[in-house]
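Dear colleague,

Following up on yesterday's call, I've attached the two folding results inline so they're easy to grep. Please treat them as preliminary; we haven't cross-checked anything against experimental data yet. The first protein's sequence and structure tokens come first.
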Amino acid sequence: MRAPDRLRPLVAASWRRSAAVDPDAVPALALGDDELDAARRDGPLATLLPVVRHLLLDDTRSAGCVLAVGDASGRLVWVDGARTARRAAEDMGFVPGADWAEDRVGTSAPGTALRLDRPVQIRSDEHYANAVKPWSCTAVPVHDAHGSTVGVLDLTGDDRAVERHTLSLLAATVAAAEARLALAASRVPGPAVPTSAAPGAELTVLGTDTAVLRIRDRRVQLSARHSELLVVLAAHPDGLAAADLAQAVYGDAGAVVTLRAEVVRLRRVLAEHASGVTVTSRPYRVTGMATDVDTVLSALDRGARLQAVDRYAGPVLPGSAAPGVDAVRDLVRGRFRESVVADGSVEALLAWARTPDGAADGRVLRALLAVLPRRSPRRAGLVAAIEALEGP
């Protein structure tokens, strides 16, 4: 075993703290199945896991590595990644429920990151335990809105697990998760503050052919035509003249009589199920309603790009052929494209490129190719995708 004074200072200090640990011991299982289920379902790690899966899991599998999330004590709650790597990791006790705290297994990225409360990268024989020496790992602690450590995110594998960009990817993923934790904390119920400015209903139109109008705990499924009318009106808060609305919905500015009859039917539905939402005339305008499009575009405006992508369920009314809906659809796609390309970060571009819209956008894929590290396993697939989109 290498002498501590020949190691990096951070690692040498960890080895000295690990002097009482048996380097040949196997990590003990500290959490049972019920405790693991509870940790994944409730609390801060339940917020972290969907972000980790969305942003890192595909790349982890492609790179032949293992991704893990541990609690604040260093006990692994979730482990996934490439199948071969997972099986190999099981031999060293890197499994859900195992205790990887530094005082249990010695120097390792997750345990030492938690001990120091800072990101850590540990290469192969810098590990204290003998069984872990064939591996390298990067880990980043996770904090709640108050700054308390609630867990750790770890990537374990070969030398790719400790490349410089790996630490940036994990840190960005943790930052996205911490933002969601802070948002959840800010929504803790308190005294109600009535406001006339807040819309009383939200229209869900992303990724669904027919919209759902949500009014507190009630849901109203709308017809395809009523969905189109509300999407177009919501996109024009100053209102539209009858001919313009007819053109946007029917593709025919002369279909005003048909439009008026449909608006009457829509008003009846709203009066019965959502009296706070009204459609006025001259010009046609909708009030008392927000949409999930507003939510994702607001997140983009705040610079919360990963949050916006996470909430993007798909194109606006994907089955609609209405010209006005198509225009809103293109507007949302364009806003995402401009935002993630302007941001220029690997994390934002990767997140959008994983959606069907982003995956079909050559400009986004080219921007991602430009910022990916040269050794990234994603590069070959990106080149092939770009060539398929743009032709020979």
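Below is the second protein, in the same order (sequence, then structure):
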Amino acid sequence: MRWLLLALLVIPALEIGVFIWAGGMIGPWWVVGLILLTGVVGVTIAKQQGMETWNRARASMSYGQVPANEIIDGICIFVGAVFLFTPGFLTDIVGFILVLPTTRTPFKIWLQKYIKYMMDKGTVVYRK
């Protein structure tokens, strides 16, 4: 809980600092334009990736398989879309990492290992 509170204080301060720095370099209207552009492009990519993941999940369920990878993909895409919808360059970087398939893969591997660790530890209980 402390980490979340710290993140809610530090991340906006960093974003404001980056806005001021970028505004001094390229001008404030270009910064506003870049924020809008990255938001629109990011949400468009997130929607496209989300639909692809949804279709893969439906296909695997039609074959009687559990769509485990698709669920993790969906979580990453959702969190990435939230970061992309939030104005800021640092959050956009994190959002694009989570939305784009090539950069999402290392994060997915880490998330799967973390979930397995939590299940082995007994923190997460999985029942059929």
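For the second protein, one point worth flagging: The helical segments are 2-26, 28-62, 68-85, 89-99, 101-121.

Best wishes,
A.L.
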